[in-house]
Design goal:
Length: about 400
């Protein structure tokens, strides 16, 4: 009789603490170095244990972290069943949080895995993106990160001006236009009115500003190139048809959500993006809703928020829907924005899925006629100057 070998792993940069159990037997603890050699030895050891129990299946589980999916790939290649668990969906008691150890974490993961295998309990696992989607995400995320750095540098410039009691000239208009930038360059020059150290600091910030803007232009071109590949082109143009949705917004949405066909309805989309209200209902407490959960990819919520403000300004129907909620209570502007964000996310999902379905029908007809299929399209990823809403 074969037994399932279940492994709960607490994964760190340098070590992996394993809790290993066969069926309902007591767990055994093993510590493995998180190196190439250590992982190879761990796989060899688990294979040997599986052979000794008659070829039992090896099931491995660990929490998602900054380690990425490298361990998942290696274990899957080795023929093991691997689950990556969502830390936010693992219930932890207050006692566990106060006495948190690697052993406790690994044991809790093992217990969740055993409950899934032996009792059929649901496992809080995450969807694993394919390697191409992971790679595409890196470029789009870098574009977002550089944009955030640019915002930080601009805030530092404004702080330096306030600290030195400098006010922008009245004829410089608004924003970071050419007139305002020339004035900043004059302040940073040797003839400027700032002190020598402040001039040096401002000059450094202006150099950083220039470099970041050049880097953003370069990344924008690269993201646009990605958006126009066969993998994304059809759905990319489809999403751009929505008011307020720009190149970056479309690419962030598609790359972060990945395979959109894994969502079956709008509620799942809202819940995944953290745009569903939290609830605290028990006993006589009915319909007690709180703030949104804010679970899921925060990058998507950020670009959706920026795109929503653009839609409120440019789309009359969206403006009416926004104002209707605000009219009930002027303090509920945030609620109105979140409602608009959720509507936009659902519209984007519907458009992307419909586009994929239409493409599949066209491909099927082309295959029946024996001709070449149209450009390949996958809903599993997508692109995003690329400004979030422009």
């Amino acid at each position: 009789m074969t037994h399932s070998i279940m492994v709960g792993c607490d994964l760190h940069d340098k070590t992996m603490l394993l809790k290993i159990a066969e069926g309902r037997e007591k767990a055994e603890t093993r510590s493995i170095k998180n190196t190439v050699a250590g992982r190879v030895e761990m796989i060899r050891m688990l294979r040997e244990r599986a052979r000794m129990v008659g070829g039992g299946e090896v099931m491995f589980a660990y929490e998602a972290s900054g380690q990425g999916f490298g361990l998942y790939d290696e274990l899957t290649e080795a023929g093991f069943t691997c689950y990556v668990l969502a830390p936010t969906k693992i219930a932890r008691s207050m006692q566990h949080r106060r006495r948190k150890t690697d052993e406790q974490d690994a044991l809790q993961i093992l217990e969740l895995l055993k409950a899934h295998v032996l009792a059929g309990n649901p496992l809080p696992k995450i969807w694993i993106p394919d390697p191409q989607t992971r790679d595409d995400r890196q470029l789009v995320r870098m574009r977002l990160d550089v944009g955030e750095k640019l915002t930080v540098v601009k805030a530092q410039v404004q702080g330096l001006l306030k600290g030195n009691k400098q006010r922008r000239p009245g004829d410089s208009g608004k924003g970071w236009n050419a007139t305002f930038r020339r004035w900043l360059a004059e302040l940073a020059s040797p003839a400027g009115t700032l002190g020598p150290s402040s001039r040096s600091a401002l000059a450094s910030l202006l150099r950083q500003l220039s470099w970041l803007e050049e880097e953003i232009d370069l990344l924008d071109r690269q993201v646009l190139h990605l958006a126009l590949t066969d993998r994304y082109r059809d759905v990319f143009y489809e999403l751009l048809g929505l008011k307020g949705v720009g190149r970056l917004t479309a690419m962030v949405f598609l790359t972060e959500l990945g395979d959109l066909s894994r969502f079956s309805n709008r509620r799942q989309i809202g819940a995944y993006l953290g745009l569903a209200p939290s609830s605290n209902e028990s006993g006589d407490r009915d319909d007690c809703k709180g703030h949104i959960t804010r679970q899921g990819p925060s990058r998507v919520r950020k670009v959706l928020c920026q795109a929503t403000w653009s839609r409120v300004r440019t789309d009359e129907a969206e403006k009416v829907a926004y104002q209707r909620i605000v009219a009930r209570n002027p303090k509920h502007k945030r609620i109105a924005v979140v409602a608009s964000m959720r509507r936009l996310a659902i519209r984007m999902w519907h458009r992307a899925v419909d586009c994929a379905a239409a493409h599949e029908k066209t491909s099927a007809r082309a295959r029946q006629k024996g001709g070449p299929p149209p450009s390949a399209f996958a809903v599993t990823s997508a692109p995003g100057g690329l400004r979030p809403s422009g």
